[in-house]
Amino acid sequence: MNRELSDIPQIGQGIVSRLAMLAARATPTSRVYLESVDGVQFPPPGRGRRYWVVSRALCRFFRVALLHDTPAASQRDALALEIKRLSPFKETGSWFHLSAGFASVWLWDQEATRAAGALAGIDVARLRVLPEPALLPPLEAGTRLIEVLDGYEGQHWVNGGLSASRWWPELPDERAWLLFQRGASVSPDALSPIVPEPLRLARTERPWTKARTSGAFDLSRLDMRLVMAGGALVILALYGYQGARYAHARMAVAAQEQEIEKRASTIEPILTARAQALDNLAAIEAFRALDPYPGQLTLMARVAEALPSDGAHLDDWLFDKGRLELSIASDKPIDVVKLVRSLEASGVLADVAAERAGNNNTLRLHASVVAQ
Question: Which domain CATH number covers 308?
Fold first, then answer.
């Protein structure tokens, strides 16, 4: 594709601009634009990698289970489908982190983010867009409360991955904090009824995540464009204006031919991997739907192991669609708190509630059976 004489200065300006962007990314510091509920906060003047950070208040967090014994390409295809299913937005911005057995996924309204950038005079497409937690120091394991741009976030970490997250516009009360811990599957012994002092964390220079959205900017394409632009400048210096014009046309044609060959050779494996990922996902869902709960004998055995060793025994048993009602009788008064904790720690029951039936030696319990 040929260009007119007047296009040559524009080509040079584009090359200089891209070289400046590459040099900025090579610097150790970063410049962060913060998109919050109240607007956009600009970084101080300077150079460095540029990030557009979406406030936690504007993001939705999901914990997505990963497929076992599946190639990484199929994992990413299945995750892309799950993101599409979970997103309520017309145009979705996403960021994820792959952990052991699950992925931490953040979603936001990319259309609203682009509009906020345009209102602030920033082209968001030229920046790496990521959620606010991606630039806050991670935790190996445990639960914490941190202060974010537009409120507070509760986090529960497992093996270096963010397993659960909850955002509040104001500091949560004790009930909200306890519900968050229960929703995050914190063990009963580790539950904290007291709301901790929120932490103020300094942002990191780079994201701590091991993976990001598949729609992020491809650096390999940037390198190819810089090589092509550099070649055009050399030809301009050696052969003059006419030689540079001819060389640029030849490189553009070659790039188009390579792109056609590349897409023709890669489209079939992509379709095959996508079909395999969908088949794997359908098979997993079918197996889970067969019988998500343990057998009755197994369930009785686990409950019996959790009973006190002072003669307590099962007096009544009713199981229906994941809900269990049972009566426990003993010759001695039963410690309700200890029994409830023991049953929840068995790993087969959750949300155990107990009430005395007539005397201190008989208890009526209601619980949810944990799906396997």
Answer: 3.30.1360.100
